[in-house]
Amino acid sequence: MKYRPILFIIILFAVCIFGQNSNNRYKEYCFSNNYGNFCIAYPENILIPQREADAHDGIVFLSKNKKNSITFFHSMYYLMEPEWNIDFFYKNNLKEYTKTSIRYKKIGKDFYVISGKEKGKIFYRKSMVIAKNLLTVLFEYQEKDKKLFDGLISKLPNTIRIYDLDMQVK
Which of 51, 58, 81, 163 lies 20 to 30 Å (CA to CA) from residue 134? Predict the structure, then answer.
């Protein structure tokens, strides 16, 4: 009986150490332009970064089978017209999808989400205002990969960081 707490601690320690999925290492990817450095962490064992956009405003990550993608890009929010607010972009992005394809939509003070299924793939678009930039993460994936990408959806948008040109967090 007196060894139960010690045994419990040993088992708990083993579960914590050996139960972690060491395959899901996240690596930070940053792209830079005249306005700053934009970074997102991605699981390097699942996603492969592709060529950065010519305008240096985004990057596409493909799954190893090249059938799923995550696109991360930004717009200079503070350089836009005053009437171009989060509601303006939300309404315009809704027009990009058919009404029957949208299964979920939500708008908040400084973000919006549009999700659904189109052309045989699930899409999940989250746009948010961070440091006067409109940042978007767009997930497009096959139904069979839903569990994996639902996990990425819950993690990746929270890893976004913006640094000024001197790499100071904005």
Answer: 51
Q: Tell me the per-residue pLDDT of 22-47, one tens digit each, with 9 for 90 and over.
A: 456 788 887 776 666 788 888 989 99
- All structural domains of the chain with their residue ranges: 4-163
| Mean pLDDT value across residues 65-69 | 95
| Rg of the chain taking only CA atoms, in angstroms | 20
Q: Is the pLDDT of residue 21 over 50?
A: no
Tokens of 68: 């799923």
Question: Which tokens belong to 149?
Answer: 């990408």
- One-letter amino acid for residue 18 of the chain: F
- 83-to-26, 78, 126, 141, 166 alpha-carbon distances in Å: 37, 11, 20, 33, 31
Helix (H, G, I), strand (E, B) or coil at 98: coil
CA angle 162/164/170 to nearest 5° reads 55
Cβ–Cβ under 8 Å, residues 165 and 37: yes
